[in-house]
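One such given next:
>
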Amino acid sequence: MSNIGASRLDVVPIHASPEANAALGNAARASLDEEIGELRSDLASRFPERREVIEGALAAVLAREHALFIGPPDP
């Protein structure tokens, strides 16, 4: 994350290794991609001004990491 305290959130895409993709399987991966897409769409429709925050939070959850949001919430 850059610009700590600024109203900007950098999101870094996370890609699974070829071994992880093979273990998960195409059908399970497609289902998971669909569910994540639905969650992303639902959150974006409820909070359209928070797209970057939603993407960052989803990346943290999928990576099983913590997310720290600094600063006041934007209206």
